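User: Sequence recovery, please. Input:
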């Protein structure tokens, strides 16, 4: 059951980050979950674990990390599509 909650929270984090940026995450729901998980790792590495914690995710750093990840991915995809 804990893994299911982690998937749900990871998806919500990725979705919130995409809403804040106004950019869709490639891959739909799966992309949101991946952005939430990877963004959480990036955010906690850069900003630490502070703020509310849900299902093992420190929410604020996780959202900030997911925003950074989405910006990087959208920059890379834009550069590749220009070729």
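Assistant: Recovered sequence (83 residues):
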């Amino acid at each position: 059951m804990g893994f299911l909650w982690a998937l749900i929270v990871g998806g919500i984090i990725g979705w919130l980050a995409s809403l804040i940026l106004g950019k869709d995450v490639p891959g739909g729901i799966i992309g949101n979950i991946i952005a939430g998980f990877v963004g959480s790792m990036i955010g906690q590495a850069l900003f630490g674990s502070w703020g509310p914690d849900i299902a093992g995710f420190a929410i604020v750093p996780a959202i900030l990390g997911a925003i950074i990840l989405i910006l990087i991915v959208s920059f890379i995809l834009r550069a590749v599509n220009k070729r």
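The chain is about 75% helix and 5% strand.
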